[in-house]
Structures are given as C-alpha cells and as structure tokens.
Write the structure tokens for this entry.
Amino acid sequence: MPDKKTKNRQPFFYVGQHFDFALLFIIIFLVCFGLVMIYSTSSYAGTTKYGDPAYYVKRQAFFAIIGVIAMLLISGVNYQSWKYFSKLMYIVAILLLGGVFIIGVASHGAARWYRIGSFQFQPSEVAKFILILYIAHLATANARKLNTIGAHLTFMLLPIVPIGMIALENLSTAIICACILIAVLFVTSPKTAPFVLVGVVSCAGLALFLGLGAGSSGYRMERIEIWQNVETHPKGYQIRQAMYAIGSGGLWGKGLGQSIQKMGFLPESHNDMIFSIICEELGLFGAICIIAIFALLIWRFMLIANSAPDLYGALIVVGVLTHIAVQVLINIAVVTNTIPSTGVTLPFISYGGTSLVMLLAEMGLVLSVSRQIRYGR
C-alpha cells in the first residue's frame, strides 16, 4: 500500500481529458493576425532597410513558432510543479534584471536589452512570466495571513524588488507588474480595508517615485510634456502621425496594406504603434473587432480562473489575465494620446520576439490550469 507522500505526489507532466480549444483558437488567431499586420506595416521599412519586404515578418514568424512550441510544452506541465522552482526563478529574475544595467543595451533612454548576435533579449518580459508564478505561489502560501495591513505590506516586500528594478528600465512594464501584484493580492485578501489602505500607500509611493525619484529623469518628464502639448511639441511627431492614421481610417478603413502612414511617416509602425495602422487600414470596425477578440480572450481567462481546481491555479490565471488586460489598455491609450507615450506593445500583434515568446509561454500556463479542470463534478 503506497505511503502518504507517494499518494499525494503530483506528476510533473499532466495530460487531462479537457483542453480549452476555444482559448487555443483565439490565441492562434491573434498570432496569425499579428503576422499579417506586421507584414503590412513593415514591408516598406523592410524593403528600404534590408531589401526584403518580409524581413520583419520572417523574424516574427520564427519567434511565433518557438512560442507556440513553448506554449504546448508548458500546457502539458502540471502547473503545481512550478511551486518547487518559484524561489529559484525569483533569483534568476533578479540576476537578469540586475545584469542589464551592467552589460545591457540602451533603448529609448534606458538600458533594457541584452544583445545576442543579431537578436535582442528583453529581461523584463521574462521577469513578468516569473513574477506571475512567484506572486501566485507567495499568495497561496500566505492566503490565511493576509488580514492586516502589516501582512499585506510584508507580502509585497519580495515582489516589489524586481518590480522596482524593472521601473528603472521601463516604467510602463513595472506598472503592469504592479497591477499583477495588486490583482493577485485583491483576489487572495479576505478583508477589503487592509487592501485599500495598502493600495493608497502604493499609489503614494508611485507618486513619490515619479516626482522625486528616477521617474523624474529627463526622458520621462519630456514624454509628459509631449503628452500635454502634442500638437505643438517638436517631439510630438510620432503621436501626431498615429492620430492622423486613426482619423484617416474612418469607419471601414483604406484596406489591408493601403496605409500611407507606414511609408516612413510613423516611427515604430510595426511595433508600439501598430494599433494606429490597424485603424487606418481596417477602420473603426476593424479596431473594435480586435478589441472584442481581446475581450473574448479575457472572458475565457475568467472562466478558467473561476473553475480552477485550487487557489494557486486560479491566481496564475488572474496574473496572466491582468497582464494582458492592462497591457492592451496601456497600448491603446498611448496610441490615442490618452496617456503619455510608453514602450508597451500590443500583445500578440506588435513586433517583438521576446514579448511574443513569453506571452505564449503564459498562455501555456493558462492552458495547463484548464487541463486539470473537471467538469460535471
């Protein structure tokens, strides 16, 4: 007769009877749509810079294949197994984020990348994946203790270290990670009052960072000035061109591949600003359809989180849900000049290998949780 330890031991790989094919279809659709839009928005730049209109889409397709493979492999891993590696992954995240200040490559005013041959690797994208797993594990282990302000603040001490390091590299990514932390804490916390008070303290800390700390560094303050005076500021060119693209698209758009702004007028048209080209080529109707697809994706996340077999699985999905939802909101808000410009991509659609691979890895986590849901119990 097996002993208790053997009986409770979870297999590393798990293949359940259920697989969320609806979620998988949405993910594959977004990735394929992203490849189409990257080709449409980057063909001119690829031709002028490299003599190959498909230069950027080939690179993105390469990372898409890697990401899909990673997603399918991770979806077959028992998500409970990540608990045993969470502390090690936390240390890896700290080392990656710290190393970028020493040997990293500067981009848009801050060191954000490692360069490996002709490829660049962004450690903050890996850190988001690790933080989702680490925060979910930490919250699960301390769920019954989160009933006082002190317990909430103590809970935030370890996650806030990598988030602070990310803030020095990319404030917008740090805000996304902070939102993940707050969302997991909100779901886990049995009492509302301590959570609200901690939220007030966190907002005050962010305001202090922006006003007195590293947030007041030159390029960040300049972006706020651009946002406030986009029509007249000499460096408001990119946002103005993005808004021209959105306005010229009208209701139905100019047609796929017919954008004018991508012809060298709009910088980063295949990256951060790709939503404006979607509006120009596919119109308001196309933009609303893409937003609806993201809403459908988040709805599937909510269903999986509500049906997850345990708190840890639910919190993993909550972390991924928050990441996608906040990043989509920030990207669209930047393109429409609702908030100051930041370096945040549109998930699955914008050009960026590290971002796409890590996003698909996160989708693997959600699919892994969905595979252990038992319906009809």
